[in-house]
Amino acid sequence: MALSNSVYGSVATPRIYVDYIQYAKAIGYVEDYFTSDNILGDERAAFDMNPVNIQQYELTQDDWNITNQIRFKNHTNDDRQFATLLQTTNYYGLLGHRLAVDTSNHDHVGMIAASSDPNYNYYDWTVGGHSGILGDPDANASVGYSLYSIDTPISLSNASRFSFTIYKGTDASNLGYAVGDVVRVGSWTAGRYFDFPHSANLQMNINHSFDGVKSKRTAGGSDITEILYTKPNWGDLPAWEHIDTSDYDSPAEYVINENYSNVTNRARRSWDLTFSFLAKDDTFPKSPDGTIIGEYLQSVGQTDTPIFGTKIKDNIVSSLNALTLGGQIPFIFQPDKTKKDICMCKLRSNGLSIQQTAPQLFTCQLKFVEVW
Question: What is the value of pTM for the model shown?
Answer without folding.
Answer: 0.91
